[in-house]
Amino acid sequence: MTRISGVQYERQYSEMRVNESDFLVIGSGIAGLLVAIKLASKGTVSLVTKKERSESSTNYAKGGIAVPVGEDDSAELHTEDTLRAGCGLSHRDVVEFVVGRARASLEELISMGAHFTFEKTPTGIRLALGHEGGHTVRRIVHARDTTGKHIETVLLEKAKSLENIRIYENHLAVDLVLESRLRGEPVKPDRCWGAYVLDIVSNEIEAFIACVTVLATGGAGKVYLYTSNPDIATGDGVAMAHRAGARCGNLEFVQFHPTCLYHPEAKSFLISEAVRGEGAILRTVTGEPFMGKYHPEAELAPRDVVARAIDSEMKKHGHKFVLLDMRPIGKIKVKRRFPNIYMTCLQYDFDISKQPIPVVPAAHYMCGGVSVDLKARTSINHLLAVGEVAFTGMHGANRLASNSLLEALVFADVAANTAAEALEGCVIKLPHIEPWQEGGAAHLPEVVVLDHDWDQVRSLMWDYVGIVRSDSRLDIARKRIRLIREQIETYYRAYRPIPDLLELRNIAHVADLIIRCAMMRRESRGLHYNIDCPQTDNVNWRRDTLI
Ligand code: FAD
Ligand code: SIN
């Protein structure tokens, strides 16, 4: 059922292919797939995804999903742990909302076919629960150490079985279709009608028009030189939404995962925090354990503390990495509980059951993003955001481990309900529509110039806007990123869009937003640590950074 009509609409779009559906979902990770599955009974769903359908951060998630199902656990305890990790910025109402729905969301996932790891007890079997930093009890539901891959596979199978969902692989959303732009005049608040999307195979821009659009584009780890994220994580959703005028926030809170494998070919392969939950120890290159000096919980301190401690040890000794010693877990258990990590490290000639391995922190997760309310609504009408792209208020200044998949699960349900409601009242009368006009017809003569700018943005962010920041470094970063962005805009206006250029434009945009947020916050809190204002200022700064 499509509700889009109008002769003018078809005439105006004669130069470009138009796809019409009730709902447009951008992204095929846990958030996008779940929303699409839930909406399939309400109307037609176009799901665009920029690479092959399984390529997402979800697919690489290891530790698991935090759910308070243990006998010694409760929603209250999980809420308190989340609030503590968030360092005063998590929104209590959001945390209670998400944690309160955790068990039901997990059961729903299981009803769709997900199988999690069980363990035997003297009286029967129960879900095996992992332990991670910042959690006072064991509460990480997992499928060995490939939880995300399992969830992604289950959801893709489910989506495939639903007639109303059409998945478009290799389709990269470039920008949102906005009512204000269609009318050529301000519309307050603006209204989203879908997205312009690059078909990467035909190299043509198409319009995907829909009553409700859901951004589920994931994170932005590629803004940094070293990241645990896959290549898709270029912050496209935040950049598109911000260009469209949507409110964004808390982008200074970039989470660095403490332990990624240090190896030139390993692309920052993530060694799950769950290994420390099972007894692994961090050591200096000379073998000294050091976490006890930094936090009473030592290896199980919150992630921001562990990442800063590693950064400090590396700088103090002039070392390029620290060591993660998994031998205390025991040979049999390490292979059984972490088979993917074991086998992958073996490929790089590290036997984790016998030797400590070199690890370094890497950019891992965006706690901020496109600001949404408890109904997943952004500040633009009919534009929703779910998953890592969204800033719900759950994570505050630092995300508690394994709360991301949980947040995506719960908010996918919320977003599907909101989208379904929005469809009910939706009368589509599209005004005058401009065909895609950005970019010239010429092909970029030398793609190598883009490579150079990619490196520049990512190195700049790593060196100047990393784990430890300062006013002068932020100031340099701000000046440089503005120049780089100007250069990128020149390419964007002059040449045909290609994925490398579009993603570069987006990482540079998000980098700029991170720097702006970091400069605004005149204190240190959670993941944002500035040596020029090292104290936490609860009087003036116990609030979000909104832009
Ligand atoms: P993603 O799963 O990243 O999906 C984003 C989708 O959007 C992809 O399909 C992508 O191709 C698509 N996309 C992006 N831009 C565009 C565009 N312009 N046009 C079209 N499509 C686009 N969290 C936990 O809670 N527990 C864990 O154990 C855990 N482990 C992790 C391990 C690793 C290595 C990583 C990287 C992250 C981990 N996280 C974990 C974080 C968690 O996996 C992510 O936050 C979560 O999966 C994000 O889901 P998502 O659906 O929002 O985005
Ligand atoms: C991990 O397994 O360490 C990642 C967990 C997370 O990012 O929540």
Which structural class should the secondary elements be placed in? alpha/beta
Bound compounds, each kind once, are: flavin-adenine dinucleotide, succinic acid
Specify the CATH homologous superfamily of the largest domain: FAD/NAD(P)-binding domain
**Binned strand content:** 15-25%
The CATH class of the largest domain: Alpha Beta
For this structure, the CATH topology of the largest domain is FAD/NAD(P)-binding domain
The tally of structural domains comes to 3
Q: What would the average pLDDT be, to the nearest integer? A: 93
CATH architecture field of the largest domain: 3-Layer(bba) Sandwich
Strand element count: 19
Q: Give helix % range.
A: 25-40%
**Uncertain spans, ≥5 residues at pLDDT below 50?**
1-14
**Terminal Cα separation, in Å?**
37 Å
Q: Given the C-alpha coordinates, what overall shape results? A: globular
* Rg over CA atoms: 23 Å
What does this structure look like?
- This protein is α/β, with parallel strands linked by helices.
- It has three domains: 1-114 and 145-217 and 231-247 and 367-432, FAD/NAD(P)-binding domain (3-Layer(bba) Sandwich), CATH 3.50.50.60; 258-364, Succinate dehydrogenase/fumarate reductase flavoprotein, catalytic domain (Flavocytochrome C3, Chain A, domain 1, Alpha-Beta Complex), CATH 3.90.700.10; 448-520, Methane Monooxygenase Hydroxylase, Chain G, domain 1.
- The protein is 35% helix and 17% strand.
- The chain has 16 helices and 19 strands.
- The strands form five sheets. Strands 1, 2, 8, 9, 10, 11 and 18 form a seven-stranded mixed β-sheet that branches. A four-stranded antiparallel β-sheet has the order 13-16-15-14, with helices on one face.
- Helix 2 (30-39) runs parallel beside helix 13 (403-424), helix 11 crosses helix 12 (339-347) and helix 15 packs antiparallel against helix 16 (499-520).
- It is globular.
- The two termini are 37 Å apart.
- Mean pLDDT is 93; it is low at 1-14.
- Flavin-adenine dinucleotide binds next to helix 2, helix 6, strand 9 and helix 13.
